């Protein structure tokens, strides 16, 4: 028989996180003898592109579609339609809303990822008065909001609930800027934040590339020593930055694991007709070079060996 | 006098056919590559996928025909969809009323664009760059960056289908095609339609012949707003939600459809049906390449090459004919 | 003076105010002064030629009269009423039609479309009044008739104007102005690009228009043509009106001398002036 | 026939081949046939006038001769050598300069820039040869001198061409062609928009160019001008050459009759033909 | 003859000053809102933040002056930076050699754009839409979408600073300013520079005067590629990494800078220094608004409004002067 076709729809084409996810899926599909067709939204937040991709994959004969939804709610009708035609749909990375419109969910809890680095930062600041800068993703992006608000929760500042799409802004946060998760824009944002308040001593970054850009800005201003940087992601480059002391701690997530699990479920479905179900938290792990008392963390070596779920 | 009577210089016919030939070539190619491509149902799917951009591109075509450009189209569309869904969801307006509110907002944006372009004589690029940002910000603020899903039945009617032969066709696609026919007719057969071409072709001459060019421009920008409003409705009907992150790539997509369809960015020359073909070309590439199992990075690569090839073939064949 | 319209202009409304009059028009472009206090007077039923060196301000003058540009100073009177044209639309509404020197056509549009631009013929009934549907066939036929009058050999009215020869284009502009004027016709060098035959046709057309009672302003560098058809000649010089002369009573060489500044207008015998 | 250049063209190279010759030129635009097997012959040191109705194919003919368009059929010979101009650059290189009817100027650029476009004067030394730096002052001075020759009253060479009057623009184009020609000058209606004074200056310029030994092709609808300066007259009709006549031996009215088709060329007495 | 000698019509001066006035107004506004804004150090920072876009915008200005448009600029820049960093990191090339490779690739893209525009006479919009996609795909494929951080010292020299007074200034910003001066000089004082304007102003007339317009266009697209290559180097020097995600918003940013700077999208009219001012306006807005503590959605809103206001003030003041 023909190799089963499995479709993968990531959020964007360029985010290393999703590129890794795609590579994991391709490798797993090759191993299990399936054909993987990978597509993506055109930009972060692009729902229409994902709907189109979903429809085209169904038309292309995919029996399983793995999707990292750009918009938890707006994608729902398209998923329902795909499932109605007998396709198994699995959400990766982040849930749909409601959760149960997909057959199964393999994802990171982004709010929790934020919480972990918040707790770590709280401990590491050791009672010092925090002057916080936050480099967020882009306006209106749920992942950005969840990590942001989770971080504040972990740090013990007033915040918003996990499902909120707004960014809480307690007075300790002196500067908030959008980095688009991008190195260059992170650098520019940090430069302007430093100009606004040179005394910033704690930096939250949406991901590691933005943190690396911010670090460059700090270094240029000669301030990289007096600041604590925390981020989310746990990519291999990010872990290396933790090792170098650029980033103090990061919440590591596991896109390769998500992808592999998704592909395996797809092959299983093709072979046996048995669908995957339920929520599998693929986990987040706090990786820090210097552990803090009262906060569970793994060291850099563990982090590097696991980066993004590498086996 | 060395001239012979003829109805229409042959160049015009070819310029019009050009994009169409490119579309046919693309279809032939994909049909040869995937047996799933050539089915009524697949074409219905493609129509449905391009309907939002295609309707936006109608407005964009009108603006470009007047030698303008509208960068705000996608964001204004997103704002329209947020306004109409939020009016229904949060303020309990009935579907028709909520839709009217949404469209009113998009037309208002068209009015603002038009006033700035005509009364202060600002370049359309700058004006719509500004209103693009404004529309985006208002969308985010008004929606709290939340997707609005709790919308009444009446608002998604256009997303419903009817069956023709064995193919399910979305009502929205029919509306889109109908809009193209209406605009095609209006541009070709009515006085205001010809004035749109005249303004783009030679604004000064048009002013001197006593046409109120400002009024034509204002009308065009408002009409464009209307089409963005209709596109907003189609987008709500298609996704069943008001999405504050929609519309971000639609301006480049719509302008590309217009230019691929053979309309000149310098105004005054072009065909509205070309725009439909231009929008379809993009949709066909995306669909066909996915059916072939091409992954998306390669899809982007191939799309880049095919866009150039398609237009180049057209151009070279025309030079050959000359 | 106004009371004495030239005898051979049969339609001159006796004793009436000038049809179009302007006083002290000034128009500056940066430091260039195109009009420097120009006066102007067009009487009923006459052909008034406007002549002058290149850059004397002739085109600027008629652009002010047709609403295409706004003067910096000066006033315009139409039938003795002070008016202010804010745009060419106002002038059109007042029945003034103009052939501009740079022709003002939409090159990508067809001949028929250009002829009827802004004044399209609509279908009868609701299709015209409500849908504003064009009666293309009628416009094509009317255009063909108009151009045939000028003996210009263009057969297809659906040809784009940009594909026409220089003279053919000019014929389109002239035909348009002549067809729609109701009050005054202004022609800025209508025969410049025309062949002998076509040029004569335009002259005939101008006389025909005058004979129908419409006054015509004719700007031309072609002195034989001017002396052949003009009732009076307005000589423009350095942004002003140097003199208005009677072509029947002055020689061509004297006129040219005044125009080029070789002879001051004050030296002209008074009977030459109009 | 070639051996007998008209006696009064002192610089005619005796017995030489025609400077520029064309045989059977054809140019179609869609279904419009602009040139329908046109022949052409320009002799050394002469002014050859080309006349014809609007749309007779005059501009198309000279566009082919100047490399602006490629003919569909026919051949061109320069000094007896078969040549093929693939672009206007080739014609320029061969020393042929042209004033196009639609003037071919860059409106936003200054007069001096337009005059020297493509042939800019560069600074002396390395600044010119390596950096290709413009000698703007020299170009301004040279432009002012050229335009003064035409007695056109433009004083600022840094004025954009789009701000000039119709006639002033034409003077710029004429001055450019006359200044740079080394082999043949082609002028498509160079006096159309010019005033009496400026028109005469251009005629004088044309004669001066001829007297320097360069042959001139002059397209004009102004019959008095044509008869005043032309050595021979090429009559274009319906995309072909109807006849070439001797202005000294034929009346203006006969010429016009042939041009408009009122009289067949075959009825002309043979001594009129050139 | 009613004309007086003068060197330069006053309109030109004003058109050139317009964007500059808008920039001054914006600076005055921000200085009144935040005491941190008006410092040499802050201006040095802004220069540094805009330098990449500003250098891209030089190339874009050249293309737009010829009545073209280059959508590929940002992606080609990203490709250049990936090629140069990867050449150094993975293939152990020395910094100068690796940089040369990167720039060679961007110039090659310029050549391709230029050839398609001149030889096949395709619209620049379509050509560069295609090459934009192609450059993007190659960037992703060649880099595996991974950021390249392991780069030699020699490649980031332009990111280093020197101190003037008490202000640290980045070498790259100096290079950027130098490039503007060179191009300003070349466009104004050299024959090829004037030919760029002529081609954009009236391509047919320029061709008829015997200028090889195709060669001018080809040169412009290749030069633009060169500037994108230099921008790539600056971006590597600034961020210390080869970033495959770079360049996605740069095309709109660069075109905006050009248009804000007063250059006409229809070609033939504009000033290169205006483009620098246009790029600075955007950088000043972003910096100033962050200093004011305006959150990002409101920043977008305010940017939209200010862009329109800035240009409108300029336009209205000019109409007043007339
Ligand atoms: N838009 C403009 N900007 C600057 N100067 C202008 C403008 N229009 C006209 N001028 C100048 O005003 C003067 C008068 O120009 P105008 O066109 O009225 O002359 P004209 O008498 O019609 O000449 P011609 O017989 O050559 O057509 C000229 O010196 C011209 O250069
Ligand atoms: N680009 C074109 N496309 C189509 N037809 C054209 C084009 N150029 C010229 N023609 C046609 O070719 C014929 C000859 O034109 P041409 O310009 O050579 O005439 P001409 O003798 O110069 O006339 P005029 O005295 O009016 O300038 C005309 O009928 C014209 O409409
Ligand atoms: Mg004039
Ligand atoms: Mg001609």
Automatic annotation (TrEMBL), chains B, E:
Gene Ontology MF: a single term: transmembrane transporter activity
GO cellular component terms, semicolon-separated: plasma membrane
Subcellular locations according to the entry: Cell membrane
The keyword Membrane is annotated on this UniProt entry: yes
Organism: Verminephrobacter eiseniae (strain EF01-2)
UniProt KW Transmembrane keyword: yes
Name of the protein: Inner-membrane translocator
InterPro entries: ABC_transp_permease (IPR001851)
TM region(s), chain numbering: 12-31, 43-64, 95-118, 125-143, 163-187, 216-237, 257-282, 289-312
Membrane topology per record: Multi-pass membrane protein
Domain of life: Bacteria
Keyword terms, alphabetized: Cell membrane, Membrane, Transmembrane, Transmembrane helix
UniProtKB/TrEMBL annotation, chains C, D:
Domain ABC transporter: 20-263
GO molecular function, one term: ATP hydrolysis activity
Domain of life per record: Bacteria
Species for this entry: Verminephrobacter eiseniae (strain EF01-2)
Protein name per Swiss-Prot or TrEMBL: ABC transporter related
Keywords associated with the record: ATP-binding, Cell membrane, Membrane, Nucleotide-binding, Repeat, Sugar transport, Transport
Statement: the UniProt record of this protein carries the keyword Transport: yes
Classification via InterPro entries: AAA+_ATPase (IPR003593), ABC_carbohydrate_import_ATPase (IPR050107), ABC_transporter-like_ATP-bd (IPR003439), ABC_transporter-like_CS (IPR017871), P-loop_NTPase (IPR027417)
């Amino acid at each position: 028989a023909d190799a089963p076709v499995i479709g993968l729809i990531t959020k964007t084409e360029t985010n290393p996180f999703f590129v890794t996810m795609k590579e994991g899926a391709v490798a797993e599909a090759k191993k299990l003898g399936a054909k993987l067709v990978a597509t993506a939204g055109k930009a972060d937040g692009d729902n229409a592109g994902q709907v189109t991709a979903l429809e085209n994959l169904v038309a292309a004969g995919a029996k399983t579609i793995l999707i990292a939804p750009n918009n938890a709610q707006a994608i729902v009708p398209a998923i329902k339609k795909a499932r109605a035609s007998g396709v198994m749909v699995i959400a990766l990375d982040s849930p749909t809303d409601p959760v149960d419109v997909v057959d199964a969910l393999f994802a990171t809890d982004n709010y929790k990822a934020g919480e972990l680095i918040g707790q770590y930062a709280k401990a590491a600041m050791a009672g010092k008065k925090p002057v916080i800068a936050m480099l967020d993703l882009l306006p209106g992006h749920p992942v950005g909001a969840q990590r942001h608000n989770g971080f504040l929760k972990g740090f013990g500042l007033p915040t918003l609930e996990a499902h909120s799409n707004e960014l809480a802004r307690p007075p300790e946060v002196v500067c908030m800027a959008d980095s688009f998760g991008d190195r260059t824009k992170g650098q520019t944002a940090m430069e302007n934040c430093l100009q606004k308040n040179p005394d910033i001593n704690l930096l939250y970054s949406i991901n590691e590339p933005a943190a690396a850009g911010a670090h460059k800005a700090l270094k240029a201003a000669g301030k990289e020593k007096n600041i604590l940087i925390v981020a989310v992601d746990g990519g291999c480059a990010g872990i290396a930055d933790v090792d170098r002391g650029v980033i103090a701690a990061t919440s590591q997530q596991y896109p390769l694991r998500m992808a592999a699990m998704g592909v395996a479920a797809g092959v299983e479905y093709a072979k046996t007709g048995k669908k995957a179900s339920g929520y599998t938290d693929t986990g987040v792990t706090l990786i820090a070079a210097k552990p803090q008392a009262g906060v569970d963390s793994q060291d850099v070596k563990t982090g590097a060996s696991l980066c993004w779920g590498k086996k | 006098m060395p001239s012979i009577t003829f109805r229409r210089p042959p160049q015009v016919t070819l310029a019009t056919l050009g994009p169409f030939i490119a579309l046919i070539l693309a279809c032939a190619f994909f049909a040869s590559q995937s047996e799933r491509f050539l089915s009524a149902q697949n074409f219905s799917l493609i129509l449905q996928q391009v309907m939002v951009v295609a309707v936006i591109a109608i407005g964009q075509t009108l603006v470009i025909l007047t030698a303008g450009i509208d960068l705000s189209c996608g964001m204004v569309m997103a704002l329209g969809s947020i306004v109409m869904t939020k009016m229904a969801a949060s303020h309990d307006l009935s579907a028709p009323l909520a839709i009217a509110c949404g469209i009113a907002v998009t037309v208002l944006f068209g009015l603002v664009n038009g006033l700035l372009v005509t009364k202060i004589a600002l370049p359309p690029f700058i004006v719509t760059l500004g209103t693009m940002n404004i529309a985006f910000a208002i969308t985010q603020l008004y929606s709290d960056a939340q997707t609005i899903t709790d919308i009444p039945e009446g608002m998604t009617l256009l997303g419903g289908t009817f069956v023709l032969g064995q193919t399910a066709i979305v009502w929205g696609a029919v509306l889109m095609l109908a809009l193209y026919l209406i605009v095609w007719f209006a541009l070709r057969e009515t006085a205001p339609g010809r004035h749109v071409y005249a303004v783009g072709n030679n604004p000064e001459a048009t002013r001197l012949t006593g046409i109120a060019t400002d009024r034509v421009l204002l009308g065009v920008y408002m009409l464009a707003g209307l089409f963005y409003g209709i596109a907003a409705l189609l987008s709500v009907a298609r996704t069943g939600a008001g999405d504050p992150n929609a519309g971000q790539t639609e301006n480049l997509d719509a302008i590309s459809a217009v230019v691929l369809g053979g309309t000149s960015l310098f105004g005054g020359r072009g065909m509205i049906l070309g725009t439909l073909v231009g929008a379809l070309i993009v949709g066909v590439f995306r669909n066909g390449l996915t059916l072939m199992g091409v992954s998306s990075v390669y899809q982007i690569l191939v799309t880049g090459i095919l866009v150039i090839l398609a237009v180049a073939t057209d151009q070279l064949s025309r030079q050959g004919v000359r | 003076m106004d009371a004495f319209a030239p005898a051979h202009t049969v339609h001159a409304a006796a004793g009436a105010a000038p049809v179009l009059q302007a006083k002290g028009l000034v128009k500056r472009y940066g430091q260039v002064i195109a009009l420097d206090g120009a006066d102007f007077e067009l009487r009923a039923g006459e052909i008034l030629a406007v002549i002058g060196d290149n850059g004397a301000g002739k085109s600027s003058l008629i652009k002010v009269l047709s609403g295409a540009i706004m003067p910096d100073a000066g006033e315009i009177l139409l039938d003795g009423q002070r008016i202010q044209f804010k745009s060419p639309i106002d002038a059109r509404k007042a029945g003034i039609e103009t052939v501009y020197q740079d022709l003002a056509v939409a090159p990508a549009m067809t001949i028929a479309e250009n002829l009827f631009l802004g004044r399209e013929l609509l279908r009868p009934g609701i299709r015209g009044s409500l849908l504003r549907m064009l009666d293309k066939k009628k416009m094509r036929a009317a255009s063909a008739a108009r151009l045939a009058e000028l003996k210009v050999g263009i057969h297809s009215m659906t040809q784009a104007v940009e594909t026409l020869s220089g003279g053919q284009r000019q014929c389109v502009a002239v035909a348009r102005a002549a067809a729609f004027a109701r009050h005054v016709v202004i022609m800025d060098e209508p025969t410049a690009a025309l062949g002998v035959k076509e040029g004569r046709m335009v002259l005939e057309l101008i006389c025909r228009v005058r004979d129908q009672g419409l006054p015509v302003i004719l700007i031309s560098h072609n002195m034989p043509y001017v002396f052949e058809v003009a009732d009076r000649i307005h000589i423009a010089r350095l942004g002003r009106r140097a003199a208005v002369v009677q072509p029947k009573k002055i020689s061509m060489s004297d006129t040219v001398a005044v125009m080029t500044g070789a002879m001051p207008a004050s030296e002209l015998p008074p009977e030459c002036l109009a």
